[in-house]
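Anyone? Bumping this.
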Amino acid sequence: MRHLRDFEFIEAVIRAGSIRKAAEDMNITASALNRRINRFEEEFGYEIFERLPRGVRLNPAGELVLHHIRAQRSDFARLQSQVADLSGVRRGHVSIACSQALLPYFLPEQIASYRKDHPGVTFNVNARDRFEAERELSTFSSDIALVFEPHHLVDFEVVMSVDQPIYVLMRADNPLAQQKELRLRDCLAQPHVAPSAQYAVRLLLDAAAKKTNMERLRPIAESESFDFMRHYVLHEHALAFQFPIGLSLSGEHGYIARPLSLRDVPPGSLLLGQLRGRTLPVASARFVMQLSQAMQAYHL
Amino acid sequence: MRHLRDFEFIEAVIRAGSIRKAAEDMNITASALNRRINRFEEEFGYEIFERLPRGVRLNPAGELVLHHIRAQRSDFARLQSQVADLSGVRRGHVSIACSQALLPYFLPEQIASYRKDHPGVTFNVNARDRFEAERELSTFSSDIALVFEPHHLVDFEVVMSVDQPIYVLMRADNPLAQQKELRLRDCLAQPHVAPSAQYAVRLLLDAAAKKTNMERLRPIAESESFDFMRHYVLHEHALAFQFPIGLSLSGEHGYIARPLSLRDVPPGSLLLGQLRGRTLPVASARFVMQLSQAMQAYHL
DNA sequence: CAAAACCGGTGCAAAAATTGCACCGCTAGC
DNA sequence: GCTAGCGGTGCAATTTTTGCACCGGTTTTG
């Protein structure tokens, strides 16, 4: 769009770190770009770039402008989405930052179900940890975040939250599979794999083990990939841990899942959220509503 | 600003109702303006005007665009205000829609006090009833509203609220001035003036009179001007009604004010608010904080 | 019922804004 | 002290925008 063109050039300069490099990226002369930037600053009333000998860098005013640019663009996208919606077109795009756990079962099912009604809507799904997810929201890189136990929560507006007990994964022939509910001490006595430290599952397990004076987790394998861990238990007689929303509980994938007793380990909170105060495009807003309903089904 | 120019032209067309008239207003040729509008619609992807034989009119998509334009402009003003603030300039502009009652004492004092610290900040103060005030907020015509008992409350985000008992105004030689607190029936027995029906004071008085089976108000004069009524009691031996925040309680202006008993008439709520979800410019946000503190002093 | 008054839209040339090119002065790094 | 890379500027070329004249259509007016 015409009226956002200055903003595109400004963003290009920010990315490139210098006007000349940005000019090359944008297929324009450095002098032309230089004048655009200068004219913008003049009209805006304040400089937004520091001039360094090797290039330019945003000053504090520029940081505000950058945020404004991002907000502006997202706002305009929402406007178009609203207009498209009222002309009955029902198209749009939804961008999601989510925990890894939701990638195999939950989100594919939800998205497929949504697209059955709204085939014009496209999706963007990226695995992000809870820090990155919030950052993605505040830079307008994602519309929606779906993560366990997010941290800051300053820019994160919680739309829906469900508690999830931790489940233990094992092969069907594991004797523990006979019990309906497992105790933490029984699990730690067996060989187990565990997610690395930044994941909510691991945090909860570590805290629980520490609290009850049991010995710490001694995973035979640590990984950032729940996919890997889910498959590992099929090969060696080991346990893995995961939230049920990331699992298939039918047993048809070869593994059995049993909940850890809530007496031992508190549940983790799965939070659905968006950037605080932001009005989402129509498609995203509707998908949030669907997710929110789907999450209620997981309510303890 | 450059990137808002299309928006200015669009607004001009909306105001004028036809491209030709708008072109005249904007000192431009109709053909040029026509092409701007057409180009915008083409780039935007949707028509925003209905072409009528006598001009043009916004279609529903256009309504959304209009709202976007207003939000955009306000957002840009806030950005400039934030940047100005961080360069230490402390300038800006605050636009207030408020009840008449706040014009004589409360707001002048508050604004003067604020401008002592921030002389670069300018103000816009307009008396609006509670319907108009909310409309002003949602069209971004005012930043802040300060009204009694606003109605819709859908777009109105309450920042602070204080209850105000109704006070009775009289000349110092009125025998009622001897009492610390007045009963409604005593007041209605005397000649009195009253605000017209749309005002909160009148609503409360009418409701109270009706409820207690007393006879209705029989004002010897009805007016929309509290200024008029305040002065009237100085000339004839009559009573007037007003919230204390609109009064000088020192007696130095010639009238005496006594509260109506809360047993007879419930207090009215003075609400300080802004457009829901909007982030105000720095100057406005700070002034809201000051108003909020000042209002606490009136807490019952 | 016809003329006049407006309306949005378009072709074309004039005017204005933007861009590209050549070049300046400056600083960091070698 | 030399070079490479940077932001900035004067001037001409180029692209974009505008103004003017005019078209076809509809409503108002006499």
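Late reply, but here is one note on the structure posted above: The mean pLDDT of chain B is 93.
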